[in-house]
């Protein structure tokens, strides 16, 4: 009996506590709701508006076209790929338009609603014309803002990360400037129904954006309206001017190729008969030049036109190959034992090694001269006392010395000719491309 009485008392106490908490909570809710003008809950007001709302029909249907203002805040630009011609853009897209069906008068402040409301109202069908897809999935669901004013003005702000295509031209590579952008257009509404326009200011850029290979030099907006078979569609475009930093290529390609060309000139100071040294040096420089040329093609797609770095690498390869060819020619001449043509002998051996003459001695009148005033004409057979004398026949040793002197003279001329031509090429190359460089 006592146990039953104790149970009744405990149950009665718990019921009293529960009723007190309920009354306290009711008083708190009454205070919170009473702070709202008109004593209404904003979500209830919007719910009443949405009960007769048809999201399939755009605002101002059959009355006038709707104007949608767009605005961008770019937070980052990354992963600019020359091989696939695309880049990743992280930005906040803000859209503003007016929908009279969502206006209200019993609440003076704007309403900030959750993302679930987007499924119940009409929103612009904006598509990204040059988009390749989402770059990656955003972490968390809090990346959308929806705000409605009493006049029916709607603000929709979304955080977006997109992989966008960027057509590139590499004729000036690595002194090139690329223009990448984002194009937004209405997918289903023509300009007679919906018009996209830029808000003021149209675009904002995070000034802390840093790219490893490019410099963000300039940005702006423009229109890109598109006329197709189904009609004329409104389009807006934001573009970014990216200037390449060529410091990496200066260190990895240009300076090594300059040093490689200079090393190939060392063969001109080696004796033509030292074949192993000159051959090993020449072949090594040619192979290294080929490797550098292959490296310069690794960062860009396979294009059919010539780039600026291709001209440089081709010229350096020509200089290196020409040094190897010069050694081959000079070594061939150095080892030659037979005579060359008469023209070569006249140019390189005049008054040094007389050629053979089969003409018999002839008497030549020497009017006005005496044996004491006779002389030797360098370009004619010897004239001694008025008689033509045959010149001495060249020996094999004389021919060998002639060719050795010729080969050494080729190396001496090449020591000055090759650096002079390379310096001239550098002057023209850097003058042309430095003036066209936008950095």
Automatic annotation (TrEMBL):
Instruction: Provide the coiled-coil residue spans.
Output: none
GO CC terms on record?
Answer: chloride channel complex; plasma membrane; postsynapse
Which stretch is the leader sequence?
1-20
Key words of the record:
Cell membrane, Chloride, Chloride channel, Ion channel, Ion transport, Membrane, Signal, Transmembrane, Transmembrane helix, Transport
In the record, biological process GO terms are:
chloride transmembrane transport
Q: Which domain of life is it from?
A: Eukaryota
Indicate whether Cell cycle appears among the record's keywords.
Answer: no
| Neurotransmitter-gated ion-channel ligand-binding domain: residues covered | 49-245
Return the PROSITE patterns for the record: NEUROTR_ION_CHANNEL
Can you give the residue ranges of the Neurotransmitter-gated ion-channel transmembrane domain?
254-359
What are the protein's GO molecular function terms? Answer: chloride channel activity; excitatory extracellular ligand-gated monoatomic ion channel activity; transmembrane signaling receptor activity
Name a Pfam family for this protein.
Neur_chan_memb
Q: Where in the cell is it found?
A: Cell membrane; Membrane
Q: How does it sit in the membrane?
A: Multi-pass membrane protein
Q: Where are the transmembrane segments?
A: 246-267, 279-299, 311-334, 412-432
Q: Extract the InterPro entries matched here.
A: GABAA/Glycine_rcpt, Neur_chan_lig-bd, Neur_chan_lig-bd_sf, Neur_channel, Neuro-gated_channel_TM_sf, Neuro_actylchol_rec, Neurotrans-gated_channel_TM, Neurotransmitter_ion_chnl_CS
NCBIfam families to which the protein is assigned, alphabetical: LIC
Family indicated by similarity: Belongs to the ligand-gated ion channel (TC 1.A.9) family.
Q: What is this protein called?
A: Glycine receptor subunit alpha-3-like
Give the organism, scientific name. Branchiostoma floridae
Gene from which the chain derives: LOC118427777
